[in-house]
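Example S7 (structure tokens).
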């Protein structure tokens, strides 16, 4: 029996957070949503997730810093969790910047929900 895959979404826009949640819940993922990178790290101390979706531009701790901190965690399983950037690319990061920070993939805003489902499915197989 397969278990429900757990997705952690860090996104400060309630609209994007709620849309992504509904799309992924419809695909039978279990969703946990937070508003910034600091909350992501606090949750990861206590729980495991199959994939993390990180907005790049968030208050308190942005997605780039959060991804680097996840990759440097001492817990091997947590540090290897797939991470996907969600970005409007306001700061003009390149694919190389995302890879260097530890992201497995990046999704541009406005989100293409078919691509969201495809990326999440591919990275949680």
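Recovered sequence:
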């Amino acid at each position: 029996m397969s278990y429900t895959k757990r997705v952690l979404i860090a996104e400060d826009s309630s609209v994007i957070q709620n849309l992504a949640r509904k799309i992924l819940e419809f695909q039978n993922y279990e969703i946990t949503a937070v508003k910034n990178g600091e909350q992501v790290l606090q949750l990861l101390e206590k729980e495991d997730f199959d994939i993390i979706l990180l907005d790049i531009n968030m208050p308190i701790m942005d997605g780039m810093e959060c991804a680097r901190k996840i990759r440097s965690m001492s817990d091997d399983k947590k540090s290897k969790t797939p991470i996907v950037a969600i970005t409007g690319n306001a700061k003009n990061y390149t694919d190389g910047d995302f890879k260097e920070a530890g992201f497995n993939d990046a999704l541009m805003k406005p989100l293409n929900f078919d691509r969201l489902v495809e990326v999440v499915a591919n990275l949680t197989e």
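Notes on this example. Strands lie at 6-10, 30-34, 51-55, 83-87, 105-108.
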